[in-house]
Amino acid sequence: MESATRKIIHIDMDAFFASVEQRDDPSLRGKPVVVGSPAARGVIAAASYEARQFGVRSAMPSSTALRKCPELIFVPHRREVYSAVSRQIHGIFAQYADLIEPLSLDEAYLDVTANKAGIDTATETARVVRARILEETGLTASAGISYNKFLAKLASDQNKPNGQFVVAPGRGEAFVAGLPIGRFHGVGEVTEAKMKRLDIHTGEDLRRQSLTFLQQHFGRSGAWFHGIARGIDERPVNPDRERKSSGSETTFETDLLDTDRIEAEVAALADKVFTWCEKAQAFGRTATVKIKYADFEQATRSRSLPGVIADPTTLRQVSQDLVRSVYPLRVGVRLLGVSISNFEASAPQHTAQALLPV
């Protein structure tokens, strides 16, 4: 890569949760494995590549996954194990880059422009990092290498699993042109469907649209789409990227109509979220409750307090107040979630009484 351009690597672990399970239990290797619950309302958290061959994907309902692959093997989610492996992986990253932007437990951007490790190219750096990950964790990773984050992330999907791909300077626009727009970061299912209604199916189709047209149809996202269609992304790798929210949710085996049970479940979720806040030392001002009904309609209720929510009692009480605002229930509740946002760096010494609205 040219020295005047950034050298960015996007590392993405291959089927991370499922691969950890296959590593730790050799009897699962080569078999269709998913992390999740086989319960009627369970959801797949991760799927091995063997399971993916049957069309099983993460976020898929377990019942759908079982119809696609009756031989599916379910294993429970082991968050602490995955977090420990993630720390190993990020320790390896730190030996090759000072600018590291984690996206999740299993993926991150590395800016290796400064060439911390003294390796000739970003391509070779990615190869060395992947080899170190395999040696130290027994897991494979894929990598994308390019001159910006958008292209590096797209490239990491090109040769999965256990591969890497380079989009060199001057080749970004051509690379993007042939890709379906559903592959683009920032284009979700709803946006993809809207683009297709506008006869935008590929990167080349997107590039043909004027900035005015894209802003007219997609608002503030129009400028982003105009840029990425040309392989342009000026965002730096940001090691201090702030997390915007954290939450927990659960889907119930049978729909809930008992308000006492609903409030107890919300309180338990609030306690789980606050435990994360304490561990991360990240405290927010805004609590949100999500309610999904038996007919799949969804409601959210939020409340922002004057200061951060500094104790579990406050979060529990605010969350319960929010869920009470949807009473009386018109149908049963199949899912509840609690999240917190508007973070500040640390929690001041407020009491629950001081933070709760009068």
UniProtKB/TrEMBL annotation:
<feature type="binding site">
    <location>
        <position position="106"/>
    </location>
    <ligand>
        <name>Mg(2+)</name>
    </ligand>
</feature>
<dbReference type="InterPro" id="IPR001126">
    <property type="entry name" value="UmuC"/>
</dbReference>
<feature type="active site">
    <location>
        <position position="107"/>
    </location>
</feature>
<feature type="binding site">
    <location>
        <position position="12"/>
    </location>
    <ligand>
        <name>Mg(2+)</name>
    </ligand>
</feature>
<keyword id="KW-0808">Transferase</keyword>
<keyword id="KW-0963">Cytoplasm</keyword>
<dbReference type="InterPro" id="IPR053848">
    <property type="entry name" value="IMS_HHH_1"/>
</dbReference>
<dbReference type="Pfam" id="PF21999">
    <property type="entry name" value="IMS_HHH_1"/>
</dbReference>
<keyword id="KW-0235">DNA replication</keyword>
<comment type="similarity">
    <text>Belongs to the DNA polymerase type-Y family.</text>
</comment>
<dbReference type="InterPro" id="IPR022880">
    <property type="entry name" value="DNApol_IV"/>
</dbReference>
<keyword id="KW-0515">Mutator protein</keyword>
<dbReference type="InterPro" id="IPR043128">
    <property type="entry name" value="Rev_trsase/Diguanyl_cyclase"/>
</dbReference>
<dbReference type="InterPro" id="IPR017961">
    <property type="entry name" value="DNA_pol_Y-fam_little_finger"/>
</dbReference>
<keyword id="KW-0479">Metal-binding</keyword>
<keyword id="KW-0234">DNA repair</keyword>
<feature type="site" description="Substrate discrimination">
    <location>
        <position position="17"/>
    </location>
</feature>
<dbReference type="InterPro" id="IPR036775">
    <property type="entry name" value="DNA_pol_Y-fam_lit_finger_sf"/>
</dbReference>
<protein>
    <recommendedName>
        <fullName>DNA polymerase IV</fullName>
        <ecNumber>2.7.7.7</ecNumber>
    </recommendedName>
</protein>
<feature type="domain" description="UmuC">
    <location>
        <begin position="8"/>
        <end position="188"/>
    </location>
</feature>
<dbReference type="GO" id="GO:0003887">
    <property type="term" value="F:DNA-directed DNA polymerase activity"/>
</dbReference>
<keyword id="KW-0460">Magnesium</keyword>
<keyword id="KW-0548">Nucleotidyltransferase</keyword>
<keyword id="KW-0238">DNA-binding</keyword>
<dbReference type="Pfam" id="PF00817">
    <property type="entry name" value="IMS"/>
</dbReference>
<dbReference type="Pfam" id="PF11799">
    <property type="entry name" value="IMS_C"/>
</dbReference>
<dbReference type="InterPro" id="IPR050116">
    <property type="entry name" value="DNA_polymerase-Y"/>
</dbReference>
<comment type="subunit">
    <text>Monomer.</text>
</comment>
<keyword id="KW-0239">DNA-directed DNA polymerase</keyword>
<comment type="function">
    <text>Poorly processive, error-prone DNA polymerase involved in untargeted mutagenesis. Copies undamaged DNA at stalled replication forks, which arise in vivo from mismatched or misaligned primer ends. These misaligned primers can be extended by PolIV. Exhibits no 3'-5' exonuclease (proofreading) activity. May be involved in translesional synthesis, in conjunction with the beta clamp from PolIII.</text>
</comment>
<keyword id="KW-0227">DNA damage</keyword>
<dbReference type="InterPro" id="IPR043502">
    <property type="entry name" value="DNA/RNA_pol_sf"/>
</dbReference>
